[in-house]
């Protein structure tokens, strides 16, 4: 019973802490981003969304990257978000329509640091992004590169090394500086657990593949480290 | 009475001239979220990801090529991915994202797009 009470108290504290962190963000953030886990998991919500969910931002992003990006936001998604609202027919194939892709607001240093602090508090539940999801073996990066480019087809939707790749998914050229490795591993294994109707397929990968892909992505943008 | 008749007639005209039923519209939306990234707004294999794909996505408007694939094969390709039907790994598995009913509707929709098959 005591354990149950402690668990409830812990969950309440975590909820309140996330709620107050979200309150510290500019209200305009929530007009495009979900800062709390949405109760509406319908396809309609995906169709109406203007920006990616940030309710697990603290488990997804590296804080230094957030501080820097918020001061100089460049497009992470070549066709904006969601990509399917920003494309037009082209001569040979569809193209992103720049007139529809909105720029992200730019923050000053102090505001960027405050926003990053608030976002880092928004943690995913432990079972969504388990600590140690990436086991840390960077030796798999070379095989991960092959999986990304060839065997698993990730490059079809994501720009990886040298900016080569598809446009419907976020670019991953600097994935290592932007994303936490545990998040990368957890997300690759089942994107729909984070976002029920997201247009990234679940590839049913074996853990070895997930580890190798994560090692490859975790070193992208790290300057060859 | 005349007004009611006119309204009923107008409603009937609207129903008959509506381009798609609600169900079809929703499967078009699903195509527009998941399939369009590679198969394109024209449904002919010219999506925004095409320049980075080593294998051209299927042209869903090609009656000959689509007509050669059975409904079972299309269902398997959508559900389990290209490799399951001896095609490219670049066609992902959508069985985890779409329901069986949605995939069934998608196959029907593809038959409409290609104007071919059963």
Q: Quick check: average pLDDT of chain A?
A: 91
Structural class of chain B: mainly alpha
Please give the most extensive interface between any two protein chains, plus how many residues each contributes: A-B, 36 and 28 residues
How much strand content do the residues of chain B show? under 5%
| CATH topology (fold) name of the largest domain in chain A | Cytochrome Bc1 Complex, Chain D, domain 2
Structural class, from secondary structure content of chain A?
A: mainly alpha
List key phrases describing it.
heterodimer; A: 225 residues; mainly alpha; Cytochrome Bc1 Complex, Chain D, domain 2; B: 118 residues; 5 helices; 54% helix; globular
Question: Can you give a write-up of this model?
Answer:
The complex is a heterodimer of chains A (225) and B (118). Chain A is mostly helical. Chain A has ten helices and two strands. Chain A has two domains: 24-120, Cytochrome Bc1 Complex, Chain D, domain 2; 138-218, Cytochrome c-like domain (Cytochrome Bc1 Complex, Chain D, domain 2). Chain A has helices at 2-24, 43-48, 57-60, 63-71, 109-120, 141-151, 175-178, 181-189, 191-194, 207-218; strands at residues 87-88, 95-96. Chain A has a two-stranded antiparallel sheet with strand order 1-2. In chain A, helix 4 (63-71) runs antiparallel to helix 5 (109-120) and helix 6 crosses helix 10. The longest helix of chain A is centred in the first third of the chain and has 23 residues, at 2-24. Chain B is mainly α. The relative contact order of chain B is 0.13. Chain B has one domain (23-114): Cytochrome Bc1 Complex, Chain D, domain 2 (Orthogonal Bundle). Chain B has helices spanning 2-17, 22-39, 63-67, 71-80, 100-114. Chain A binds chain B through residues 43, 46-47, 79, 82-84, 87-89, 92-96, 151-153, 155-157, 159, 164-168, 190, 192, 197-199, 201-204, and chain B through 29-30, 32-34, 36-38, 40-42, 46-53, 81, 88-90, 92-94, 96-97.
